[in-house]
């Protein structure tokens, strides 16, 4: 079987920025992650064995000087010491274990130092997705020529509508080739004319380098969820934002606020944080309701929301992004991170609905136990974690 991941930076930018903040603020933290297939897919026989071999093959991947030079140029906010850490970074197959149960369902557990295992999640999800299509034969039917045209069309519609957008689709892409083609098509489309909108770049650092576009991203839920496990959900957002400020010194980007719901975040989102972060990312709940909550919050702090960027990334497609753009542009600076719709939108192909989430954390390896954590989504029914843990966290937050 061919190796699916071939480049160290074939990963989302927020993994690098979070890793940097983890080493800076929580250098001894240890974590556990767990895989969830929301559709209960039955995987082909032998799938877990192949997956474990792909994970083992990560051990031979190291970061190149070309990748480091690119990141130094484009990611000016990442401190120089971090590149020395990346040069010495080596994957270890012992961090992740995959197996299938008697029904063919897939299980993956990841455990280890947070600064190490943080680089497993996106890579493993991308491997699972592509490997599934290879082993089921679907991969042979993917029409890549048509995909370039389709991606170009999406780019054209978004650009005409004035949307500012990026590709966020590494984790559930049909293949590396599919994401590569999508990014190329959208860049080509953007350069082909004068548009009201803008194709900004991609969350995938390697593809950003290959196509000379901006690598995009700030953080994921895991950052706040791990802190919630270590310190409790009430103050998790405050500690997360403070840690981010400590590492990135003003170049703070957009904050992903929905790890434990809007209400507790809003209480933690004081005027200093509202001024420091460039904006917020909406990743669950009703996009319009969330937008108005954000707008009201900024206004209550005496901040003009038109000066703030709000990134929408909740299961978007071209049509829904255009619709939000028309509505949101009168209130803020909207932009869009579009994932699976960009990188896994082939005819008669159903994308896998898979996630890997951080489920437990401890602040140092000398602790004898982990603290469980979870994600409390603004979408009912999309909370992630052990039901008992979710219940406990919601009680702590007085939400039901």
Description of the molecule:
The protein has 400 residues and is α/β, with parallel strands linked by helices. The chain is 44% helix and 15% strand. The protein contains 17 helices and twelve strands. It has helices at residues 13-25, 47-57, 65-74, 81-88, 114-117, 121-136, 144-160, 176-191, 205-210, 221-231, 236-248, 262-268, 271-276, 287-300, 318-328, 340-343, 387-396, and strands at 30-37, 96-100, 106-113, 164-167, 198-202, 214-215, 254-256, 279-282, 309-312, 333-338, 354-362, 371-372. The strands form two sheets. A seven-stranded parallel sheet has the order 6-5-4-10-9-8-7. A five-stranded antiparallel sheet has the order 2-3-1-11-12. Strand 2 (96-100) and strand 3 (106-113) form a beta hairpin. Helix 2 (47-57) crosses helix 6.
What is the 3D form?
A: globular
Strand order of the largest sheet: 6-5-4-10-9-8-7
Amino- and carboxy-terminal Cα gap: 47 Å
Order of helices and strands: HEHHHEEHHHEHEHEHHEHHEHEHEHEEH
* Number of distinct beta strands: 12
The low-confidence parts are: none
Please supply descriptive tags for the structure shown above:
400 residues; alpha/beta; 7-stranded parallel sheet; 5-stranded antiparallel sheet; 15% strand
């Amino acid at each position: 079987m061919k190796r699916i991941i071939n480049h160290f930076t074939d990963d989302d930018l927020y993994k690098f920025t979070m890793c940097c903040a983890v080493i800076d603020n929580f250098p001894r933290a240890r974590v556990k992650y767990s895989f969830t297939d929301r559709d209960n897919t039955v995987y082909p026989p032998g799938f877990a064995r192949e997956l474990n071999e792909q994970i083992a093959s990560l051990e031979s991947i190291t970061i190149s000087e070309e990748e480091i030079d690119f990141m130094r140029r484009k990611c000016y906010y990442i401190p120089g010491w971090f590149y020395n850490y990346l040069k010495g970074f080596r994957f270890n197959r012992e961090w992740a274990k995959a197996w299938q149960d008697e029904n063919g369902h897939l299980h993956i557990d990841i455990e280890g130092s947070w600064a190490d295992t943080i680089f497993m999640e996106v890579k493993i999800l991308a491997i699972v997705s592509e490997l599934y299509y290879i082993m089921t034969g679907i991969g042979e039917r993917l029409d890549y020529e048509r995909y370039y045209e389709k991606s170009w069309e999406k780019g054209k519609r978004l650009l005409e509508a004035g949307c500012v957008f990026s590709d966020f689709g590494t984790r559930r892409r049909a293949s590396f080739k599919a994401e590569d083609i999508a990014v190329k098509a959208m860049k080509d489309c953007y350069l082909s004319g004068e548009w009201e909108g803008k194709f900004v770049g991609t969350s995938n650092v390697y593809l950003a380098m290959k196509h000379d576009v901006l690598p995009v991203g700030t953080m994921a839920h895991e950052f706040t969820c791990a802190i919630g496990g270590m310190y409790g959900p009430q103050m998790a957002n405050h500690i997360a934002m403070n840690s981010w400020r400590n590492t990135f010194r003003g170049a703070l980007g957009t904050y992903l606020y929905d790890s434990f719901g809007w209400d507790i975040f809003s209480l933690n989102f004081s005027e200093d944080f509202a001024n420091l972060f460039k904006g917020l990312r909406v990743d669950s709940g009703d996009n319009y309701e969330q937008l108005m909550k954000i707008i009201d919050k900024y206004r209550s702090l005496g901040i003009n929301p038109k000066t703030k960027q709000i990134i929408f990334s909740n299961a978007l497609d071209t049509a829904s992004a255009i619709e939000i753009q028309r509505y949101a542009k009168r209130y803020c600076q909207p932009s869009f991170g579009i994932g699976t719709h960009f990188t896994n939108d082939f005819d008669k192909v159903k994308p896998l609905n898979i996630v890997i989430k951080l489920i437990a954390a401890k602040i140092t390896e000398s602790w004898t136990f982990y603290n469980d954590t979870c994600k409390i989504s603004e979408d009912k029914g999309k909370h992630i974690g052990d039901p008992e843990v979710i219940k406990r966290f919601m009680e702590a937050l007085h939400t039901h």
